[in-house]
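Morning, I've got a small favour to ask if you have a moment. It would help a lot if you went through both lines with me. Thanks so much in advance, here it is.

***
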Amino acid sequence: MYHTNNHVHLQSLQTLDRRLKKPFRLVGILTGILLILLLTGCGKFNSKSEENSEKEPFISKSSFLLDTVVTIQIYDKQDKDILEGCFDIIKKYEQIFSRTDKDAEVYQLNHGTLPKERQAFRISDELTDILSYSLYYCDLSGGAFDISIAPVSSLWNFKPSNPVRPSEEAIKEALPYVNYKNITLKDNRVSFAKEGMGIDLGAIAKGYIADRIKDYLLENGVKSAMINLGGNVLCVGTKPDGTPFNVGIQMPYADRNETIAVMQISDLSVVSSGIYERFFELDGVRYHHILNPRTGYPYDTDLISVSIISPYSVDGDGLSTTAFALGLEKGMKLIESIPDTYAVFITEDYQLHYTKGFQEAIKIVE
């Protein structure tokens, strides 16, 4: 039902690379902050076909996948097989990208059990593709975004029901194995310079998967849909009447239905990274899930969150984590160097900071 087109995906990466080398023009958003879909007039999410009005019938399904609640809504077709196909894609990639599932390709890579060829591990087209994107953002961020964080991230558990803060000694022992420059990717082969290294795709996988779902929907004639992978929101086209979708950014630390800003979005991705979606408190200290690969501890910046609006969700994922890690000043400078990409930063004082061109390109509604 679904076929990966690696040439198209790598081409989009090369396009972004070329954009970064062009002069500045109109520019301007987890993993982890829930973006609320405010689909005006649409009822609650559910797994059954329903009709919110005579003009906008849609089918919708929600399921717990990728360690979050994912919801997909299709507005211009009543084909439940297409809807089910979206969830088949998610399950397929989850079986490749998971760091904790023993049957997943990434788990096997990290544990050295994949077949070897020329002293390197042989990997699938899908894993090769996402690693190309990931290493690109590692380079772009100067290592602030680093998929080799696995030896450290595996020590932490940010679930409030069972939080784990590793010892300082354990972190110090793991840090020498964290450096994306020690990952070599060539064709469908990957190798690590040090035994004991591993990768964690948690900061980019949902964006990549959302793009693949959009590809699948377009191939099946869907021109109006909303993909929400636990806060990674990707709009396919517009609503059936041609109006934009309304996408809200959650008010930090508030109920998920309370927004701090609502944007009108057409055929774009909205992805956020921040400190209030996955965190725990221990001994009076709050620990969030965005780890600094240089220290092994959560980043300490002047930001609560960064939301990225971009054509591709994988770019939004990579850039949101990168911009958050860089902080307000450097993060805004980076986003403002990338055409067709915009961001809103929320600082600790709950002030919103928009990149240049944001408010001209993205309409904010009450």
Remarks:
- Residues 1-54 have pLDDT under 50 and may be disordered.
